[in-house]
Amino acid sequence: MHKVLTILLFLLIPILSFAQENSVNPLSLRSHSTMLGIGSNNQLDTYLSPLEYTGTEVRFIQENIKPTRLLSGRVSMQNIIQANFSYTKSPTKDSKYLSGLLDWSLALHYKWQITPALRIMAGPQLGMHGGGIYNTRNGNNPAQLRLALDINASGLAVYQFQLFKRSIEARYQLDFLLAGMVFSPEYGQSYYEIFSLDQGKHNVCFNSPFSAVTANQMLTLDIPLGTAKLRLGVENVIRQTHVNELKTHDWTWLFLVGYVKQFSLIKPQHER
Fold first, then answer.
1. Are strands 49-67 and 75-89 parallel, antiparallel or unpaired?
2. Among 45, 131, 134, 165, which residue is least crowded by beta carbons within 10 Å?
3. How confident is the model over 121-143, as a mean pLDDT?
4. Ramachandran region of residue 19, left (φ > 0), alpha (ψ -120 to 50) or beta?
């Protein structure tokens, strides 16, 4: 376990140091977007139930992108916060899941300008995931805590084209798990045993694509609308774990609508 934590810390240091180094940028063209997503959700948590629950999810997304001075300005920083709430039912309709989860990610993307209209971006991403899920029927173990730390690979393709004399920007982003840590009870273990009896010895587990594939993909269109842009898109979120003889998954498909604002921050010449 100590070796795994050491490896994760080694991977996190470049991301966090880059973020600190580029927190001040004399001249920055930044992008800020806010989106609302509504769609379907499929949930499995064998600690609470062996059944898959299906229903509706609502997700709020805020994204900030700004350039940095790394590698002659060819690296940008992306910060995303996602809060989602879902209401799902069992196949027998006699039990429900209520869940609330928060995701935060920070990525550094290196840019390749393939053509004047197409650019490709890729780099490392740090992700944190937390929240909980509650089963309305269970008595002994009614809830499950969700905590995870992810090291991801992140990539984007951005393409600009003209439609009805408007400049439209299409963007596809894919983030997938390389390695991480996840909290999970052991099979048959209660939270009382973990926190009150101090019997939690194997509850922080290593997670990787070999144990359960975890990925997030988003396709959006930005359409000029006044001084801002209208953003329409779809998002597919796959979060899975298979540790301590327990399986979980959240499979989500969402339709997105929101807006994008771009602005620049210019400091006085003597401060540059």
1. antiparallel
2. 165
3. 92
4. alpha
Kindly indicate the confidence band of residue 201, based on its pLDDT and cuts at 50, 70 and 90. confident
Please name the residue that has the structure tokens 């840590």: 181
- Strands 166-183, 118-135: pairing is unpaired
- In the block, which residue shows the tokens 């959700």? 41
Q: How far is CA 216 from the centre of its chain?
A: 7
- Of 232, 239, 271, 262, residue with least CA distance to 37: 232
Reduced to 3 states, what is the DSSP secondary structure of residue 40?
strand
Report the alpha-carbon distance of residue 180 to residue 149 in Å, rounded: 5
**Position with higher pLDDT, 196 vs 55:** 55
- At residue 90 the predicted structure's pLDDT band, cuts being 50, 70 and 90, is very high
pTM score, whole prediction: 0.83
109-113, 134-138, 233-237, range with the lowest pLDDT: 134-138
What mean pLDDT, rounded, does the chain reach?
Answer: 87
- Per domain, the residue ranges of the chain are 2-271
Size of the chain in residues: 272
- DSSP 3-state of 146: strand
Three-state secondary structure along 162-195? EECCEEEEEEEEEEEEEEEEEECCCCCCCHHHHH
Identity at 229, one-letter amino acid code: K
Beta bridge partners of 135: 97
CATH architecture of the region 2-271: Beta Barrel (2.40)
Q: What is the largest CA-CA distance in the chain?
A: 68
CA 205 to chain centre: 19
The beta strand positions in the chain, using DSSP E, are 27-45, 49-67, 75-89, 96-113, 118-135, 143-163, 166-183, 204-207, 215-225, 228-243, 246-266
Say if residues 52 and 42 touch (Cβ distance below 8 Å): yes
Which DSSP letter does residue 19 get? Answer: H
